[in-house]
Amino acid sequence: MEAGATATQVTQTIRAKTILVMGDSLSAEYGLKRGSGWVALLEQRLKVEKLPATVVNASISGDTTSGGRSRLGGLLAQHRPTHVIIELGGNDALRGLPLQLTEDNLKQMTQAAQKAGAKVLLLGMQVPPNYGKDYSARFAALYAGVAKANKAALVPFFLKGLADTSDATRLFQTDRIHPREEAQPIMLANVWPELKKLLR
Description:
200 residues, alpha/beta, five-stranded parallel sheet, 5 strands
């Protein structure tokens, strides 16, 4: 403890956390009213749980893992996050980008965040079966592979309870890609248990 520093000041220094969310439209409130997306709900949850943390939502609709990778360095330097949530890859699949590219980008982002001292949580995605069984399986496995190889935390499927239900369309906007406002608490519920472990 530095001379003259109170226990409270030291505790605040240790406990103050910054969570950087690197996502696409699923995290950028696409088609939703401001303040109703899962990231905004996360901020509310942190207050309720009395976990002191600042949330920086750096999500951009349409972003790919390549876009996220190119932006991450500047954001790490600017915000110095203690935790980084990576929710990217869905647009890579929609554009038919090579799986190896997506995997490499996720790996590089994870390692860059860890090198900067942040704990990383990967939000896994899955693609519809019309992409083909092999591609779908390999895409889903990307996230688990990157998380395991880099000892990062993982939510296996960010849209669990939404995209995998029998009446999935009810919880999605008319484009059938973006979840509606009432689906956002489910998305947060998928993220929260893993994030809470990292915050503790």
